[in-house]
């Protein structure tokens, strides 16, 4: 555990993170996230984060060392796509039982690795450490080392017990494992001056494939994507890239920064979401590559592709723009993509009436502020009742959020669209932005919203819907409906609590 | 009749099993204004939450004590206390149901003691029912967690009868975790048609049946209220559905003297006959004409579907009670089970009418399904079904790639009829069209096994008591 604690401290001390550098030594040690509140917390654990970050590596066997909960309750539930091996979608776990707790799970883990190598012959086995083996002191490093020698297959320990912190920390711990055990252990067959790494892109719904054709056209090679649609060996030779793009805010900033330190690979933070963001990203990739020795003509070719693609995308969005112009959007996401989505929606003529910045970094918030021009639109935590009120009072026409909060909108018979990792539509690049706008239009234009708001035949005129009662509870005095007194006790009590 | 064989693998591949705490949490979700709380790290809750959201397509109330590494080592009393206080302040629940997890059980947190201490220190919480159960992730499975949570509620909330007069019209129903919200609705209608008043513990039909709610609430939308649970001791009978509900039924009997009748399944003609007959007996009412007609429909459905189900080979992966219900009911129209896999031990497994039941995972199910015509298991079977090119009938939890999972009804005459139709249709639509080459080299090669001449083991006898 000491080494894990050191790793965590190391991750907390991230020099490229502005927010981190602004803190005092003591604050920094406490880590990036607020202390979780028992009975008031939501979100995944460090193990969840580590798995999200690495599972997209497609040909690896991802073995979860822990009781059944960690894998059994969650496997094959993420939308990362593969162009080759499907092994990453196979759920492997040691399914620890009481015997393991009493006698230790090391032998069990060793045997499990052997079975995997014998049956599936993967290029590597990733072993995820969860809370229970961390508590009983299983020496995962030793088991992995022995198994790697014995079975001639790299076995990579990922120290990610859930109780060390939230998902975001898990992303970084996964990155540390890659830096320590994988990156730099193989050499590519050849390199070119046009080799890049994409770090923190998971190819959800195949989004990487919305980008790849453009890079192909420009002659830019993704030497390694960490980790979307990646093969193990690609990650292992990623240290030979000329430049890197870091996606998805700060999830894997430690990987990007340390690769710059160790291998001199410069990186920039970019986004594939939004037309202008996408163009900036292409420009930045070209600029970094030229800086590292690629032919300067790449810039001109990149600009030509940008001009062409932008024109096509705008033309495709045009028919929607009229219909969507002035529509108001409430954006509630984990935060990682907030600012990139804001720009995209504005491009389609929509207004953002609010966005959550709960997990966003200070820089992210700055970007949102710049885009929306008003601090008041940002909120750290939007209570479900408040989300609902914004929809109901027509402050918003549609809510975009993750699956968990969808029912606040749907139960209120208001349009909702999924923009989190579970969604099934790819929104990256120029095509993705057109798809997103089309998707919003498809959602808003659906006649179902009128249908489901139709009162039942037994409802009399003047009846107050529950939705209104909930809003009329004390604490919402500003509501125009406050003329109608709430008629149930519970709604009143709850309203008070919320206020 | 089935022999339980345990998989000897060190590595579970493609788990069929889910863990105890979320099974317990689901039971608490069938209670009115309830907030289930997992005592563990936040991931334990988050995984369960995502799973249920995707299965039910509903908002899921589920909280965590958010145990950090330090809290885990030092003990979690403060976290549990704080969680309870926060939940009460934020959501005003009538019931908080706490399940332990692997982390806190390894540490040895005494949840029962914690709850007692919280009671002493916070008399202001007297109006909130707090029920806890021990559900380590490293033993048992989803079904066991459900059993423990329901048993814990009976023990903590039901009051003794104390010589009060029993209401002959009131009966308790303890549904297993395989009984869907749709099944509960069906059962309620059946029971009420005999003039009886059922109390379901728990009642997912009120909370997770996908309705538009009457109120805005951060806790469960509906379900059974604490005062209804307390009054269960005054009922005349308890119906337990599935072997998993024996423990809570016994606890209820011990506590308040309510006799129970255990129905190992409610899918299949004879099994349903038992139910309708029993309800008629205890109510003194004849079986209503509607159900007499439905029985006829089921008999006809069995006749029509046996052409398509009879002799076809099934690979089924499910928790013990559901597996028993499916293998039995399909076996009664001639289905042959070539691979049966389950998650946990249960006395019911010995009664499953097939040769062998494997305590294993979906890799085992897939390996045994090479000759199968159809795969029946939860949505995680989709990869195996794709590889084997088999139709995949989704049943059990989770069904994350299917609409209306909560409304899949397989109980009663009508539920059985619909199940046979759905399964039969799936097989019929995959019917193999004959081709000119089918019989050209159709004899088995030398040395290859001839089809087994063993009589089907399924038609042997009726199993419901």
Characterization of the model:
The complex is a heterodimer of chains A (499) and B (465). Chain A is globular and about 75 Å long. In chain A, the strands form three sheets. Chain A has a five-stranded parallel beta sheet with strand order 11-10-9-12-13, with helices on both faces. Chain A has four domains: 180 residues, Nitrogenase molybdenum iron protein domain (Rossmann fold), CATH 3.40.50.1980; 119 residues, Nitrogenase MoFe cofactor biosynthesis protein NifE, C-terminal (Rossmann fold, 3-Layer(aba) Sandwich), CATH 3.40.50; 99 residues, 3-Layer(aba) Sandwich (Rossmann fold), CATH 3.40.50.1980; 33 residues, no CATH class. Chain A is built from 23 helices and 13 strands. Helix content of chain A is 47%, strand content 12%. Chain A has 499 residues and is an alpha/beta fold. The C terminus of chain A is likely disordered. The longest helix of chain A is centred in the middle third of the chain and has 28 residues. The C terminus of chain B is likely disordered. In chain B, the strands form three sheets. In chain B, strands 1-13-12-11-14-15 form a six-stranded parallel beta sheet. Chain B has a four-stranded parallel beta sheet with strand order 4-3-5-6, with helices on both faces. Chain B has a four-stranded parallel beta sheet with strand order 8-7-9-10, sandwiched between helices. Among the domains of chain B are: 121 residues, Rossmann fold (3-Layer(aba) Sandwich); 119 residues, Rossmann fold (3-Layer(aba) Sandwich), CATH 3.40.50. The radius of gyration of chain B is 23 Å and the shape is globular. In chain B, helix 8 links the parallel strand 7 and strand 8. Chain B has 465 residues and is α/β, with parallel strands linked by helices. The interface between A and B is large, with 79 and 72 residues. Strand 2 of chain A pairs antiparallel with strand 2 of chain B, so a sheet runs across the interface.
């Amino acid at each position: 555990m000491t080494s894990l604690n050191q790793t965590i401290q190391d991750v907390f001390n991230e020099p490229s993170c502005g927010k981190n550098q602004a803190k005092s030594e003591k604050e920094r040690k406490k880590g990036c996230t607020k202390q979780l509140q028992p009975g008031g917390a939501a979100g995944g654990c460090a193990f969840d984060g580590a798995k999200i970050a690495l599972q997209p590596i497609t040909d690896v066997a991802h073995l979860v060392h822990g009781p059944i909960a960690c894998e059994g309750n969650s496997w094959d539930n993420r939308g990362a796509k593969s162009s080759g091996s499907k092994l990453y979608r196979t759920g492997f776990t040691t399914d620890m039982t009481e015997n393991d707790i009493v006698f230790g799970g090391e032998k069990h883990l060793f045997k499990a690795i052997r079975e995997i190598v014998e049956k599936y012959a993967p290029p590597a086995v990733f072993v995820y450490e969860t809370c229970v083996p961390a508590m009983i002191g299983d020496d995962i490093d030793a088991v992995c080392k022995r198994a790697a020698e014995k079975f001639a297959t790299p076995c990579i320990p990922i120290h990610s017990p859930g109780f060390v912190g939230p998902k975001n920390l898990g992303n970084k711990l996964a990155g540390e494992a890659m830096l320590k055990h994988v990156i730099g252990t193989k050499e590519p067959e050849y390199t070119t001056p046009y080799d890049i790494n994409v770090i923190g892109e998971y190819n959800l719904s195949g989004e990487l494939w919305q980008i790849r054709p453009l890079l192909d056209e420009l002659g830019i090679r993704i030497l390694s994507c960490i980790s979307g649609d990646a093969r193990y060996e690609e990650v292992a030779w990623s240290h030979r890239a000329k430049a890197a793009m870091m996606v998805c805010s700060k999830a894997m900033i430690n990987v990007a920064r340390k690769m710059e330190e160790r291998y001199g690979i410069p990186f920039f933070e970019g986004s594939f979401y939004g037309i202008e963001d996408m163009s900036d990203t292409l420009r930045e990739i070209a600029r970094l590559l030229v800086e590292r020795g690629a032919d300067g003509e790449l810039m001109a070719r990149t600009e030509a592709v940008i001009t062409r693609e932008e024109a096509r995308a705008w033309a495709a969005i045009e028919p929607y723009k009229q219909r969507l112009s002035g529509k108001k959007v409430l954006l509630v996401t984990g935060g990682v993509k907030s600012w990139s989505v804001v720009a995209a929606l504005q491009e389609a003529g929509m207004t953002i009436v609010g966005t959550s910045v709960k997990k966003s970094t200070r820089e992210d918030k700055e970007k949102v502020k710049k885009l929306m021009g008003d601090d008041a639109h940002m909120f750290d935590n939007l209570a479900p009742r408040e989300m609902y009120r914004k929809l109901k009072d027509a402050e918003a026409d549609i809510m975009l959020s993750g699956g968990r909060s969808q029912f606040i909108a749907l139960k209120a018979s208001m349009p909702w669209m999924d923009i989190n990792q579970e969604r099934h539509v790819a929104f990256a690049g120029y095509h993705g932005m057109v798809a997103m706008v089309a998707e919003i239009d498809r959602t808003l234009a659906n006649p179902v919203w009128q249908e489901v708001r139709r009162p039942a035949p037994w409802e009399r005129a003047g009846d107050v819907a529950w939705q209104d009662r909930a809003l009329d509870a004390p604490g919402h005095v500003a509501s125009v409906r406050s003329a109608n007194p709430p008629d149930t006790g519970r709604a009143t009590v709850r309203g008070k609590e919320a206020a | 009749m089935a022999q339980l064989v345990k998989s000897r693998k060190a590595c579970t591949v493609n788990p069929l099993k889910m863990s105890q705490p979320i099974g317990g949490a689901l039971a608490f979700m069938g209670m009115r204004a309830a907030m289930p709380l997992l005592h563990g790290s936040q991931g334990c809750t988050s995984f369960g939450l995502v799973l249920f959201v995707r299965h039910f397509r509903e908002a899921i109330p589920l909280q965590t004590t958010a145990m950090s590494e330090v809290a885990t080592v030092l003990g979690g009393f403060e976290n549990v206390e704080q969680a309870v206080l926060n939940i009460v302040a934020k959501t005003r629940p009538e019931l908080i149901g706490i399940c332990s997890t692997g982390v806190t059980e390894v540490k040895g947190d005494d949840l029962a003691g914690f709850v007692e201490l919280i009671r002493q220190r916070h008399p202001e919480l007297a109006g909130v029912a707090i029920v806890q159960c021990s559900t380590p992730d490293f033993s048992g499975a989803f079904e066991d967690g459900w059993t423990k949570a329901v048993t814990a509620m009976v023990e903590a909330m039901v009051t003794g009868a104390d010589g009060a007069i029993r209401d002959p019209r009131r009966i308790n129903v303890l549904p297993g975790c395989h009984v869907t919200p749709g099944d509960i609705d069906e059962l309620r209608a059946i029971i009420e048609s005999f003039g009886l008043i059922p109390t379901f513990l728990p009642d997912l039909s009120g909370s997770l049946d996908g309705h538009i709610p009457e109120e805005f609430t951060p806790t469960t939308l509906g379900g059974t209220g604490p005062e209804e649970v307390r009054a269960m001791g005054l009922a005349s009978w308890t119906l337990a559905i599935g072997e998993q509900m024996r423990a809570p039924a016994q606890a209820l009997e011990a506590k308040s003297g309510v006799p129970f009748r255990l129905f190992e399944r409610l899918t299949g003609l004879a099994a349903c006959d038992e139910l309708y007959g029993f309800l008629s007996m205890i109510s003194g009412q004849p079986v209503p004409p509607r159900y007499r007609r439905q029985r006829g429909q089921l008999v006809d459905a069995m006749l029509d579907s046996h052409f398509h189900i009879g002799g076809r080979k099934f690979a089924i992966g499910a928790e013990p009670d559901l597996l028993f219900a499916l293998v039995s009911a399909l076996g009664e129209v001639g289905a042959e089970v070539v691979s049966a896999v389950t998650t946990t031990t249960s006395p019911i497994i010995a009664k499953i009418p097939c040769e062998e039941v494997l305590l294993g995972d979906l890799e085992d199910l897939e390996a045994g399904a090479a000759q199968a015509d159809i795969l029946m298991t939860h949505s995680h079977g989709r990869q195996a079904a794709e590889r084997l090119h088999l139709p995949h009938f989704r049943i059990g939890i989770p069904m994350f790639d299917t609409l209306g999972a909560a409304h899949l009804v397989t109980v009663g005459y009508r539920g059985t009829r619909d199940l046979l139709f759905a399964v039969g249709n799936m097989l019929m639509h995959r019917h193999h069209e004959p081709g000119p080459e089918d019989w050209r080299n159709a004899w088995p090669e030398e040395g290859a096994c001839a089809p087994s001449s063993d009589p089907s083991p399924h038609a042997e006898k009726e199993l419901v008591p």
